[in-house]
Amino acid sequence: MQTLFIGQQLIFLHEVDSTNTYATNLLRNVNVAEGAVIFTDNQTQGKGQRGAIWNSEIGSNITVSCILKPHFLSIKNTFYLSKISALAIYDVLTELLPNSQFDIKIKWPNDILVNQKKIAGILIENNFNRDVLQHSVIGIGINVNQMEFKDLHNRASSLKLLTNQVYNKNDILEKLCQQLEKWYLKLKALKFSEIDEHYLNRLFGMNRLCLFSNINNNEFSATIIGIDPDGKLILQHTDGKLYYYD
What we know:
The protein is α+β, with helices and mostly antiparallel strands. The chain has helices spanning about 20-30, 80-95, 160-165, 170-190, 190-200; strands at about 10-15, 35-40, 60-70, 105, 110-115, 115-130, 130-140, 210-215, 220-225, 235, 240-245. A hairpin with a 2-residue loop joins strand 5 (about 110-115) and strand 6.
């Protein structure tokens, strides 16, 4: 693993309920080094956002969690962990897929799309002690060699579906660790404006009128104009007013 610290400690599990849960339990019992990575071939109870399930075909995809200790990061800036994770996945995909054929975008708050289909997801779980961020578990799932997605109504894709090639998951894992480390070091150097610029330039729907639905399933049209420091989506409605959504 050609990295400084992310991925230098690798824990491979043939099967686990959730790599995020395993990492969190590990942190409770062991002094784990920052950058430790847990990955598996079979995640039986993979977690998505807001209690959703992340389904992954056995042995086909990247299901991984990385332990970070960003004590330097204030509570109000924790969404930057989501930004750098998304940018790391984006950069891995641009290495693997030619830009001329594939439209790669970050979909707020936690998905990566290729040609408007979901190819990766992020779930970050933070632990605080008072006002100090003690540790973060960065859970990442990337669809690599899976060919069928029964539960997402044709809204998901994989690298193999896109290119008809079989990919080496270990190679992709190493690329992911390298890119995550690159962006984490930028975050550690407090390069917020650089991270913001790259993130917004790759954000799906940025500066474009799109259709949304709210918590009551009421649809409305609005334009994404940015992300606030708390990670809320800033939308400009057709009446010109700005609204903030989490």
